[in-house]
Amino acid sequence: MKKPNKIAVLTSGGDAPGMNAAVRAVVRSCAFYDIECYGVYQGYQGLIDGNMKLMNARSVNNIVNKGGTFLKSARCLEFRTPEGRAKAYKNIQDKGIDALVVIGGDGSFTGAMIFQQEHNVPVIGIPGTIDNDIYGTRYTLGYDTALNTVVEVIDKIRDTASSHNRLFIVEVMGRDAGHIALNSGIGAGAEEILIPEENRGLDQMLESLQRSEKSGKSSSIVVVAEGDKTGENVFEIAKYIETNLPYYEVRVSVLGHMQRGGAPSCFDRVLASRMGVHAVEKLREGASNVMVGVIDDKMVLTPLEKAIKGKSEINNNLLRVADILSI
Ligand code: F6P
What we know:
seven-stranded mixed sheet, binds 6-O-phosphono-beta-D-fructofuranose, alpha/beta
């Protein structure tokens, strides 16, 4: 397979801290290996509209520390159609682009895979999502930063919880995955953690909160992933607790998109840098239709199809740790 001469890089799906650092790593690796690099704006929409700019090593100055993505991101419906993808292909052909780096989550990788199959353009994915829910990597870009953000906020909520003897229910992101809830919950010392992967029902939580109250706890934190499968939203959970345990004064805090913003942690910057360099080096070696990841501190490649369909498992031992410590 011929080495690429022109690579395009884009960010797609929900933004995540570390995406800028990954774009920087791709652009600079291209400069290092004498490859032309186009930055595509607005994700796949930019490919369809031809909204892209030739970048050089200096185009990505002073962004390693910035949250969000300067290339901007979008969830693009038109790219889900063969016509949209044909327009995108025409644009990259016109520019002579012969490989694509897609930084995003599983939805973005699905688009990349179909595009590769239809038009035979080599593509490589870099996992960028705060949810950490992608198979083939121990960590996704933005996850570590989001965890630190959540823990910092829950620490603050704890001040009020303990000053007022209240029970706080904190909803964190994670539409399909409980990584953020489980890890931030343990890190912030939550009494209870509800995640999509494990539906223990609300009664177990009530029993545990009752035990805590009897043992002298005067305030509590319950962390709930937004995709939690108890079937109740956080406000309903709050009502349920207040009805069944009337001595608790309950408040709800939905953290929302603040979890996606902010300067990337050092961990995410290093991860992004390694992934960006690896993506370009592997494209040069002829890799395609794969995602870069890190497992046991080694860079690995996983077929996009597997990355999309595989499940990023929750560490069950963490559930046990959370249970033991919530005594
Ligand atoms: O994919 C990351 C994520 O943060 C999910 O946890 C959340 O459900 C979703 O994005 C929110 O997406 P949007 O910004 O489109 O509302």
